[in-house]
Every structure is written in structure tokens, then in C-alpha cells.
Amino acid sequence: MAEDTDQESKTEQPSSKRLQDARNKGQVPNSREVPTALLFLASLPLFFFQGPKLWGQLQGEMRFLLGEAISHDLTPVGVATMVRDILTLMLLDLAPFFGVFLVVGLLASLVQHGWLFTLEPLAPNFSKISPLKGFKRLFSSRSLMEMVKSVLKMTVVGVAVYLGVRNHVNTVVGLSATSVGSVLMVLTSVVFEILWRVALAFLVLAILDFSYQKFEHLKGLRMTKQEVKDELKQTEGDPLLKGRIRQIQREMAQRRMMQEVPKADVVITNPTHYSVALRYVPGEMQAPRVVAKGVDAVAARIREVAKEHKVPLVENPPLARTLFRDVDLEQSIPPDLFKAVAEVLAYVFSLKKARGR
Fold first, then answer.
1. Which of 111, 284, 345, 355 has its CA 20 to 30 A from that of 14?
2. Is the pTM of this model over 0.90?
3. Helix (H) or strand (E) holding 279
């Protein structure tokens, strides 16, 4: 009951980190029907094109070896040598088939979950040998699904055999008066028809089973809302801590900005909501530069610092709003504002000259 309640609380889809952690542990969606279906599909053309050749080779080797058997001594060593020769030749003939089956088996794994190599599943897990958990697994939904698949596979094979035999009943009945070669040809045709029907049915079962396995895999990795929050804290840090860090960074940047206000030549104001401090050194700067800017409380602080250091304040609401919106700190003003800023600086420099006189 507790496990059901816990499962119901897991309403969030698994994150990419949780999926990757599960993959590192070897927990990936895996269907045993996919290799079976691919082996069937690969075996049909292989045996269709290479089967007669393989049959001829095996016949020739059996005749040769049985003919040579007379020359062998009927001693343990002689019999062992003969059996070894027979097995060696058969394995050499079947090696291409084994190679194809091995490639198909690897391909089945790659198709389902890509390349994956981990020794995590080999680690001892004593919970798997718990009688109580084993009893629960015996009557779980997964066991029920496996039973349904087994019944379905037997049904599919039975239907395929029935259809294949039904279509060739008359032909099979008439084989009693034919040669052994004709019987083998007909039986091969019947078996091949049965196999391709089974292969197609297994392919459909493999697709359905893999979809089910993937659904169950994702369902088992679902997360609660608290797990999502905890993982977010681990990967990106505590949001409160990050907010505090950003606040400290803003305060430090603001202090550095305020230190530039006394060096400014003029502060253009809104007059209450915006403040933008400009500095221009002829010969060193190609255009005036924004050294400080702010809105509301920050704008008021800029004006206070400017008054303390006798930096001129000029009210020009349109220009102040435009500079605040379009020009970043430590950037030069754009060409389309040259004229407006030049008029302000000319006014400020004239005031400085008048004060000097």
C-alpha cells in the first residue's frame, strides 16, 4: 500500500539527469522480443540464399567422413579424431551464420538503447534474492504481461503453422509418390512460408513490447515534485543562495558605478525618474561615454553624488530616457545622439568657463 501511494505521488516526468543516471546503472528499456524478431528476419534471406549451399556442403562432408571412417581405427583415439574432424568442418560451414546472428544480436541492442557498456548490473544486489520481493514480482503486472506475451507468441506460431499447412494440404498428401528430393523441396517451401509469417508477427510483437517496456521504464523513473526541487538545487544551486549572489553582484556593480559619478562631466536627468552620467575627454574618447545610469532610487543616488562633487545636473527628459534605454554602461553614445549630447556638453563647458572667470 505504501509503494502504491509513493507511486501515485510521482507525477513528474523524469529529468534528463535522472535518465542519464539510470542509463549509467544499466537501467534502459529493453525488450527480449526485438532480438527474436530481428533474428527471424535475418535468418529468412540467409537460409533462403545460403541454405541449399550449406546443405550440399554438409552432405558432401558427411559422405566423405563416413567413407573415411573405415580407415580409422575403432579405438578411442581414432573415434575422437573422427568426431573432431566432423565437428570442425561443421563449425566452419556454420561460422558465417553464427557471425550474422552475433551482428544481429548487437544490432538489436543498438536499436533499443544505443551503445551502452556498464558493469553496474553485475554488482551483487541482495534485495533480488528476498523471498518476499520475489513473491511480489511473481504476481506483479510485469509478470502478468510476460505471461500474456508467452501465450500470444504460442498463438502466433500455432496460427502461422496452421495457415502454412492448410495452404499446402493437397501438395503434402501427394508427396507419397514422389522422390525424396521433391519432398524436401516442398517441405522447405512450406517451412519458409511458415517462418516468414512468424517473423512478421514477431516483428509486430517486438514493436509493441518495446513501446510497453519504454513506457514502464519512464513510469518507474517518475519523480515527485520534491525530488524535482532537490535535483534542481543539486544541479543549479539553491535559488535563495543564487538570488543572494545576484544581489551582492548588483550592489558591487552599483558601488563601482557610483565611484565613476564624480568623474562625470554632466548628469542628464528626467528630472526625478532617470539619471544618466556622461563623461567626455577630448583627444582620448571618440564620443562621450555613459559612466553611470539608474532609475528611481538609483537615479536619486546618482544625483546626490553628483551634487556632492559639484557635477552639473541638466534636465532633459527625452534625452535621459533615450540614453538610459539605448546605451549600456561604459559604452559610447550612438551617432544619432551626437547633436543632442553635444549641445548639453557645450552648455556645461560654457558654465565651467564662466565659473573659472
1. 111
2. no
3. strand 274-279
